[in-house]
Structures
1.
Amino acid sequence: MWSWLFNAVYFLALLVWSPLILWQRWVHGKKRGGWPDRLWGAQLPAEESNPDAPLLWLHAVSVGEVTLLTTLVPALRERFPDFRFAISSTTDTGLALARERFPTAIVFRFPLDFSWAMKKVIRRLRPAAFVLTELEIWPNLLRLLQARQVPVLVVNGRLSEKSFARYRWLRWIMSPIFRQLSLVLVQTDDYRERFMALGVPKKRCRVTGSIKFDSARSDRDNPTTMGLRAWAGITDLDVVWLAGSTSAPEEEYVLQVFQRLRSACPRLKLVLVPRHRERFEEVAQLCLASGLNVVRRSQADSAVVPAWEILLVDTIGELSAWWGVAQIGFVGGSMGSRGGQSMIEPAGYGVAVCFGPNTANFRDVVALLLTSTASEVVKDSSELETFVRRCYADEDYRAVLGRNAQEITKSQTGATVRTIEAMAPYLSSSVRTLHSK
C-alpha cells in the first residue's frame, strides 16, 4: 500500500512540476535528459566479467557528491578487492563526471522513486549494500532494499536546518523511513543529533568527519593544476582571483569589482567558474559585456591561448584543479539563498578565501575557518572589493589567510579511514547474507 501511495504522490508532483521543467528548457535552455531511465529504470549492461561477485551500489546526487566518491571508492576497492561497484547520479553533469572518473564501474542514471523503476534496478544489480552520499531519502527504494535485507549506509552525512525542519514536519511519515537506515556516518555532532531526532537509533549514528577534507589537495605542483596553469599562460607575476561555484547575481558582482580594480591592480587576473552548466552562455555574455579580454575554456585553442583578463571556465569537473592556480578566492552560492558551496578545496591549496554571509550548508567548516583567521565573510560587492584589493596589495595578509586555511584542512583529515572502518562489518555481513541466499 505504501509503495502505491508514494507512487501517486510522485505522479502528482511530476504533473505539477512539468510546466516549470518545460519552461526552464524553453527560456533558459535547461535540459533534463534521460527521461526513459528516470521513469522506468536505467538500461544496465546485460553482461559483466564477474557477475557473481558482490556489488556495492553508491548514489551521488550531482558533481559534488561524485567528486567526494573519487576519494572514497579507491579506498573501498583497496579494502574490498572482490567487490564490483555501481554508481548512480541524478543530474546530467554528475552522470558525465561519474563516467569519466569511474570507467570500470557500472554508472547509470538514478531513477525517480517509482516502485517499478526501483524494482528493476535492484533486480538487475542485486546489491550487497547501498550507500547514500551525504543524504537523499527515497521511501520506495529504502522499503524495497529493506525487504531484501540490503543494508543502507549513509556516508559523509549532513542534514541542514532547512531539511531537518521539513523532515520533522513530516515526521509521522519520515521517522519510520529514517529508522530503516542501517548506519549513518555524519560530519558533525549537530548532524548526529538531527538524525537521531528523526528516528535513527543512537547506536547506528556516528561522527566520522567530512571526507571532503581528505580529498582536498594541497600540492599546487600536481600535474593537472600545472597543466592548466601552463595552458592559460599564468606566470609568477600574475595574481589570480578565482570566483568558483557562482550563481546569479554573483557573477555580476564579481565582474563589477574586477572592472573597478583593473587600474589599481594591473597584475590581477580573474578566473570565473559558474556552478551550473546551463548558465555558461549567460555568464559568457556578461563577461563579454565588460569590454575586457575574455577567453572561454571550452572554446580556446588548446595550443594557443590568447591574452586574457577574464577566463571563463565553462567545463565540468575542473574546478578543484583550478583552485590550485589562485592566490585569492571567492566561493559562490553564498550571496543568495543557496546556502553556499564548499570552501574546503581552496582552503586546502592555501588560497586566501572569502564567501558571502549565506553559508548554512557549510556552517561547521565556516566556523573552523573564521575562528582560525583563515577566511573572511563579505556581505556585499563593496566588501568583496575591499577584500580582493587588500589581498592583492598585502602579500603577507593573503599568505597568513592561506596558511591558516591549509592548516585547518590538514587537521581535519582521516574521515575516509574512519568511514571505511565503520562500514566494514556491514559490507562483510551483507556478502555472507548474499551468498547464503
2.
Amino acid sequence: MIERHLSLLLSVLVVIPLLSGCLSKIEEEQTVFRWGTTTSMRDSGLLEELINDFSSKHDVDIEYVAVGTGAALELGKNKDVDAIIVHAPDLEQEFLAQGYGSERLTFAWNRFILLSYDELEGSVYDAFYQIYSNQSCFISRGDFSGTHHKEQAIWQALNASHHVPIIEDENGIHPEGEWYNSIGQGMGATINMAFEKGCTTLSDRGTALNFVDTIDLMVYEFNDTILNNPYSFIPIDEKQNEWTDLFGSFLLTEGQDIIANYTIGNQSAFFPISQLTEELTR
C-alpha cells in the first residue's frame, strides 16, 4: 500500500495496485477507481477484505480516502471520487434528492454502541438522559460524521421527550455544559479521549471492537431502532461507470458472505443487509 494525501483533505489515501490490463474500453479510459469512505469501514478492516476479494477478480487500481460521512459526501458533491461509502441515511437521501448520487445500495449494517466509564441502565435514551442529568463527562466526535449525526438525533429526541435543552452551533446540535466535549476528530481519537478522561462516547461497533481489549471502558449495546447503522454504497452522478456497477453488484452478492463471516475478536463487526430487513420486520 502506498499512502499519499488528497488535495481536498489532508487524509490518508490508500492505493492498491493490481496487475495491468483492460477488459473493456471503459477500463482503458479509466483504470483507477476512486472512493470516499467512512473511517469505520477502513479501521474495522472490513474494507480491505472486500477490496482484496474484488481486486482478485478485476484488473483495476483502487484508491480511497477515509473520512467522516459529512466529508465523504462533500467529496461526492465535488466529484472528486467515483463513489462513496457512508452511513447516515437521511443525509444520503438528501444527497440523492439533490442529484449528486445515481443510486443508493445499502449493503451492510451494525449498531452504534456506547463506551462508558460509568454504569448506565435502561434504553439508549435512558443512558443519554442519565449522562445529561448527572452531567457526566461525554466526548463527542463533533466532526459531522455518521456517528456524530446519530448522536445529534438522540439529543434531539431527548429534547422532544424529556425537554433536555439543546443548542445548535459550530459543533452541531447538543446540550450545554462543561461536561460535554466536542473534539472534531475521528472515532479512534474520540475513544482514546473517553478512556483517558473517564468519559462516555457513542461509537460505531466496528471501530469499538478494535479498542475493547486496550481500553478500560464498559461496552453498552442496545436494541433501540435509532441505533441501527446501515452502510450504503453510492456511485456519484455523471461518474457512474462499469467499475461502480461491478462493485455495487459485488457488494450485494459475493460481498454479503464476506460481511457475514468478518469478525473482530470472534465477534461479528457487521451484518449482511438481509438481517437488517429481518430486524425491521419483527
3.
Amino acid sequence: MLLVPPGKESPKVPYLLNLVYVVLIVLSLPWLLYQAVRKGKYREGFAEKFLGWTPRRTTTGPCVWFHAVSVGEMNLLGPLLRRIAEERPDWQCVVSTTTMTGMALAKKRYPHLTVFYCPLDFSWAVRAAMARIRPAALVLAELELWPNLVRTAGESGARVAVINGRLSEHSFRGYCRIRPLVADLLRRIDSICVQDEVYAQRFRRLGAPEGVVHVTGSMKYDGAETDRDNTHTRQLASLAGFGDGDIVFLAGSTQEPEESVALEVYRQLRDRWPQLRLVIVPRHPDRFEAVARLLERSGLSWQRRTRLEAQGADPTARVLLVDAVGELGAWWGTARIAFVGGSMGSRGGQNMIEPAAYGAAVCFGSNTRNFRDIVAAMLQRDAAIVVRDQDDLADFVRQCLEQPAFAAELGRRARELVISQLGATRRTFERLTLLVGGTADRESNRHVAA
C-alpha cells in the first residue's frame, strides 16, 4: 500500500487493496468452502458482497447507512434507531451486516428498514453500493474500518462516523505497528464517538484528529431492558412453563465447554433444589446441534425452544436449550442466576450488561478482555462475581440458592450500575444530528444532479 497525504492519494491504492483481498480470499478458500458446505456460511448475499448490488434507494432526503457486523452490534442500534424514528422521521435509515446471524436478527428486529449484506471492501463493490444507496452518512458500529468503504463514502459526499467506538489494548498494539496507514484512515472519519476516555486517547494516539473524537459513553447500557415484566420476557417465561417458584439459572452466549460445565453444576444441585431450572443459550447457531447432542447424552429431561409452540412446555423438562437467534436479551429477564459465557475459553467474554440490567446475580469467567471496562465497573461496585472453573461456578450458584439475600443484593447493585450509565444513545444521536444536518443540502443536490 502506498503512503501519501490525504487528498493526494495515488489512484493505485484501491487496486492494490483489491489485490491484497483477492490473495487473502484465495489463501482462505479451503476454509471458506468448508464453512459453506458444512455450516452453510457465506452462501447468502453474493451479489451484494462481491458486486455491491445492494437495494437501490429511490427516495430523496437524507439517508443514513448503519453498518453492524453481527448480533452484538445489531442489538445496540435498536435504541438509536428508535430515537431517530421519533425525532428525525425525515431520515431514511438502512442497515447492513456481515454475518448470517446479523442478517437474521436485523430482519427480525427492524422489519420496516432496508437491510442487506455489506459489500466486501473491493473498490468496485463499495462504489456500486454507494451509488445505489446515496447515503448522506455512513455510520459504523464500534470499529469496522475498511479502507475502500471509508474512502469511497467520502468521495461520494457522505460523512463517516464511528459510534460506540472501542479499541481494546490488544487491537491498539496491533494498529500501532501500522500507525501511518491507520492514521490516514482515521483522518477520513468525520466523527468518532467512543465509550470512554481510555478509548478516546487510543484513537488520538493512532492519529485521529482531536476535535473528531468524542466520549459519548457505551450505548450497550442504553440498549438493555431493566424491567423484568416486559412483554417479551413474560411471553417467553409463559411459553417455557416457568412458575413463580422456579429459580432460573441461565448460561448465555456460551461456547464449548461452558455448556457441559453449566450442565454439570445443575446436575450437582438439582436434587437439593428441585425448583432450579437451567436455560442454555449457545453463542453461535452452528453449535445448537452439538449442544442438543450433549443434552441427549446427559440423560436429563430437556426441551428445545423451537419446539415449545408446537409441543407446549413439558413439565418434566427442567433444562431448556434456546436454539433461536435474537432472543437472549429477553430470556435474561427470566434468570435469577446468570452465567455470561465466552469467558472460560479464549473468546474474551460476552456482554454482561443485559443480565445486570434485570438485576440478576451475575457471574462470568476470568477471560473477559473484550469487556474490561464493563467488568471493572461491575467488580468495583461488587455487582458481579468471577468464577474461574466449574467448582467456582457451582459454589456461586449454591450460594445464590442458600442465601437469596446475597443474590438479590448482587443483582440490585448490578441494575443500579446500568441505570447510572444511561444516556449514551442520546449523546450519540446529537452528534449524528450535527453530522447529517450538514449533508442534507449536498444530498439533495446529488439527487438533482443524478
4.
Amino acid sequence: MAKNITPRDKDYSEWYVDVVREAKLADYSPVKGCMVIRPNGYAIWEEIQHALDRMFKDTGHVNAYFPTLIPQSFLEKEAEHVKGFALECAVVTHSGLELHEDDHKLHLKGKLEEPLILRPTSETIIWAMYKNWIQSYRDLPLLINQWANIFRWEMRTRLFLRTAEFLWQEGHTAHATSQEADEEAMRMLHVYKTFAEDFMAMPVIHGEKSEGQRFPGAVRTYCIEAMMQDKKALQAGTSHFLGQNFAKAFDVTFQNEQNQLEYVWATSWGVSTRLVGALIMTHSDDDGVIVPPKLATWPVFAVPIYRKPEERSLVMAKMNSLIGDLKTQGIGVKLDDRDNVTPGFKFAEGELVGHPLRIELGPKDLEKNQVVVTKRHNREKVFLPLDRAAAEIVTILDSVQKDLFTRAKTRLETSTKEINSYDEFKEYIAADEGFALVHWAGNTEDERRVQEETKATHRVIPLEGTREKGKCMLTGKESAQRVVFSKAY
C-alpha cells in the first residue's frame, strides 16, 4: 500500500482523491470547482479520445467545432432545455476590463446587449447552424461530433467525476425520419457499451432512463451504467433521441422527396473526462492506478537492473533490443534507466501510475536468458525466454485486459440482486450491497420520494435480460419489467 493513499476499506472517497493526486492525474485549480488535468491523467484521456474518435468515424461521423459562447436567447428557445440547465450556467455580461487610476483595480466595461452563456451543452448553437446547412433530404443525415470543453457550475465537486469545467465529446445528428434518428441514438449507445467493455474493461448495463432522469429536451435518453468498487453506480455515457424539439425551436426544416417541408429529427450523445474517474474506481487499488492495457500509453514499464558500469552496457543492450521488438509489435514501452533512484523506487512509481506490465532485466537474468514480467493488477510474476519475450508479452497483455473485465463483471453480477419489497429495498440500499433490480411503475414524484428516503436513484431500464411482469415495489401497480436502482456518483 502506498504510504500517502488512504486504504479503500477505510474511506473510499478519500482513497479516490488520494490516488488521483498521488498518481499525478489531476489537481485542484485556483479557480473554485475546476481541475487541472496533469500529463498522466491527460494521457489516459488521449487514449480514450483516440479509440472513440476512430469508432465514431467508422460509423460515418465527422468532427467539427462550435463556439464556446452561446447567446442567452438561444437557450430560451427550447423550454425544457433552459429549465434543465439554467441554474448551472456561467454567464458573460461584459466585453472587457479597464484599470481605474483611483483604486488601481480592474472594473467591468462594455456591457453586452445580450448575455452570453459558456456552453453547458451545444444543442442550441449547433441547431442554429443546422438551419443554414439543411435544406433538402439530400443533406441528411448530418452526422457531426465535436471534442470540446463544457461549463456547468457544480455545488459539490470531485476530480474528474464532477467539476465546473470538463472535457467531453458531443455528437449532434439530424435525420429525415423518427426511426432513423432513434436508430442512431441506439447505435451510439452500443458504441459506448462496446468501448466501455472492450477498452475500459468495465462492464455496463445499458438501457433507457426514466422520465425523471431524461436529458432536458429529449424524448428518450439511453445510458450505460457501471458499478464501481464501492458498489455505487456511475453513469458513464448517454445518448438522446431528441425528436423534433430542437428542429422546431430553431425552425430547421427540409424538403422531402415529395417536395414537402418537414422538421428534421435529432439526436445528441456524449461522454466526458468522467470516464477517467470511472476507470480509476473500477480497477485501481491501494497502491495506485490500474490502467487496462488498451488504454495505456505505455503498457510496458521497463526497468534495467545493474550495479557496475560493465553490467549496465550488457543489460541495456539486451533491454533496448527487447524494447525494439515490442515496438515492432505495436507495444509502447516506458524505459526507466535513471541511475539516481533504486529499482524499488522505480517499481513503486510504476505501480502508482498504473503501467499494466513491468519488465525487469539484470545480469542474473542475462545468464538465464530470461526477462522477469510482473502483472500490475495481481502482481503475478512470469519468467520469459528473451528470444520469445516480445510475442509472449503481447499475449500476456491481452490476458490482463480480459482479467480486469472478468473481475469487474463478477463484481457487477454478484452485487446485483432482485428485490421484491420496499422494506427489503431500504435494507439492501442502507447496507450498500449494490444494484437493486426492482419492479417499478412509479412516476417522477415517486422517484424523488425513494431518493429522499434511501439516497438511491432510478439508474436504468435495462434493454437486455428477461422481462417479467410484477408489482411495483413502492406503489403496487403493475410493472412490465425490473429496473435498476442504486446509490450513485
